[in-house]
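Summary of Year 1 activities. Much of the first year was spent building the evaluation harness for sequence design. The harness presents a backbone, in tokenized form, and records the residue chosen at every position. We chose the following record to illustrate the format because it has been used consistently in internal testing since the harness was completed.
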């Protein structure tokens, strides 16, 4: 069944400028891993944001498990968003706080944040869940270390652990390896892919690395010139370098 279904999506930022993209349609199966590729400025980030209504498309529809996102009320949208994990280029972690605190802090997103000393307290069960999420990304050992003292790859893993606190049905990642060296990039993509395969989390990521698309996605969507130019199984693609 389709986890995400996008129909005839159009988006422009300004009425005086051409559409960023038009008539984009595709669907993503539950548990599938899908890459959006395309040149710089093609609109990959914009498309990703429209898929979860971080941005409103100008026309077209997005369905998530047959629920229409584009007409959803704000309240339903909040509930929907609570089932999505977001991982961005820059991890937006708090560098002075430990990995564990960051994972816990993220779980409070959307609610008024606790102030003062109360923000250092969390329920035992929530703490155990956060430790479990850190374990899933291989960071149990550094749970108490301030994020500012972690490597770029480790920081992105903390961001993923934070996303996992939501028990996401869908994981959205916008160039998650942009600031990482090749080795850390491969490891991070492998981790995302494993999470998708083992936990059945649907994964939609943007990448400008063709190899990441062919190696870590089941399917590749290519956005270029304002339209979807490619929608194919990665196994049917051949990368010539
Ligand atoms: P990509 O992710 O493929 O690099 P983006 O979706 O970030 O592309 O951007 C597509 C185009 O839309 C670019 O020309 C960018 O400058 C423009 N753009 C992105 N965000 C905005 C915005 N908030 N307002 C106006 N233009 C934007
Ligand atoms: P990303 O790489 O994730 O697309 P960017 O660094 O390109 O992020 O953009 C950062 C923010 O600035 C985003 O919220 C994006 O929508 C916005 N933005 C990008 N290009 C433009 C633009 N030409 N005009 C206004 N806002 C823009």
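For this record, the design step produced the sequence shown next.
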């Amino acid at each position: 069944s389709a986890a995400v279904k996008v129909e005839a999506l159009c988006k422009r930022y300004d009425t005086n400028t051409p559409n960023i993209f038009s008539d984009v349609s595709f669907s993503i199966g539950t548990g599938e891993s899908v890459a959006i590729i395309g040149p710089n400025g093609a609109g990959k980030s914009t498309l990703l944001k429209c898929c979860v209504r971080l941005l409103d498309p100008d026309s077209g529809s997005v369905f998530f498990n047959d629920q229409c996102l584009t007409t959803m009320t704000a309240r339903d949208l909040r509930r929907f968003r609570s089932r999505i994990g977001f991982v961005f280029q820059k991890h937006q972690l708090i560098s002075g706080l430990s990995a564990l605190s960051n994972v816990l802090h993220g779980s409070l997103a959307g609610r008024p944040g606790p102030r003062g000393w109360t923000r250092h307290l969390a329920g035992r069960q929530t703490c155990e869940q956060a430790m479990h999420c850190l374990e899933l990304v291989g960071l149990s050992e550094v749970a108490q270390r301030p994020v500012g003292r972690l490597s770029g790859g480790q920081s992105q893993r903390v961001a993923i652990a934070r996303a996992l606190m939501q028990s996401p049905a869908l994981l959205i990642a916008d160039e998650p390896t942009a600031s990482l060296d090749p080795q850390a990039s491969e490891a991070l993509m492998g981790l995302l892919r494993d999470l998708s395969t083992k936990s059945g989390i649907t994964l939609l990521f943007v990448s400008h690395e063709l190899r990441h698309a062919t190696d870590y996605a089941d399917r590749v969507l290519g956005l270029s010139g304002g339209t979807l130019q490619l929608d194919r199984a990665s196994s049917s693609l051949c990368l010539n370098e």
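The longest strand covers residues 2-11. Quantitative recovery figures across the full test set are reported in Table 2.
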